[in-house]
């Protein structure tokens, strides 16, 4: 998914509010939500097939490339979370005509090199979702 109108926002109050965009998203591979299965086979069921129940779900990993101005320090604060082993609260905003948001707590598991480009900085990040992803409407 591409588009310079899709933006990333960071919360400093555990996801209650999100500030202005900290960067534009240049490329993005949203995390795939998956659910594990748990063997729920009932012995004596009259057949020789396994049966399954739903287990825990996982919000996946988001791979994004962001573009920001060198004086925007919020992206650097996000990257520092990896070094400090802290969790971040992120919201990805999809403007009109989509008008939706995806919000989640995450761990920053990868931070690529800062690449200066045309007076801005491009950087690849991998965000591991920690808990559920919340969908919302963009106000």
Shape call:
elongated
Detail the poorly predicted runs: none
**Helical proportion?**
under 10%
Distance N to C terminus: 22 Å
Radius of gyration: 19 Å
Count of strand segments? 10
Strand order of the largest sheet: 1-2-5-9-7-6
| Class of secondary structure makeup | mainly beta
Kindly report the oligomeric state of this protein. Answer: single chain
Helix segment tally: 1
Q: Which band does the percent of strand residues land in?
A: over 45%
Give the averaged pLDDT, no decimals: 92
State the major sheet.
Answer: 6 strands, antiparallel, barrel
* H and E string: EEEEEHEEEEE
In short:
With 139 residues, the chain is mostly beta strands. It has 1 helix and 10 strands; from the N terminus they run E-E-E-E-E-H-E-E-E-E-E.
Features:
single chain, 139 residues, mainly beta, six-stranded antiparallel beta barrel, two-stranded antiparallel ribbon, 1 helix, 10 strands, 8% helix
Describe this structure in words.
The two termini are 22 Å apart. This protein is mostly beta strands and 139 residues long. The strands form two sheets. It has a six-stranded antiparallel barrel. Strands 3-4 form a two-stranded antiparallel ribbon. It is elongated, with a radius of gyration of 19 Å. 8% of the residues lie in helices and 51% in strands. It has one helix and ten strands, in the order βββββαβββββ.
């Amino acid at each position: 998914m591409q588009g310079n109108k899709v933006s990333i926002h960071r919360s400093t109050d555990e996801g209650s509010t999100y500030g202005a965009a900290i960067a534009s998203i240049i490329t993005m591979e949203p995390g795939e939500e998956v659910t594990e299965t748990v063997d729920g086979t009932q012995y004596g069921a009259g057949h020789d097939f396994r049966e399954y129940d739903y287990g825990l779900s996982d919000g996946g990993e988001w791979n994004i490339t962001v573009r920001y101005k060198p004086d925007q320090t919020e992206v650097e604060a996000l990257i520092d979370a990896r070094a400090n082993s802290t969790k971040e609260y992120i919201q990805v905003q999809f403007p009109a005509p989509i008008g939706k948001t995806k919000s989640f707590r995450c761990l920053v598991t990868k931070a690529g090199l800062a690449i200066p480009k045309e007076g801005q900085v491009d950087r690849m990040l991998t965000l591991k979702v920690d808990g559920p992803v919340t969908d919302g409407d963009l106000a």
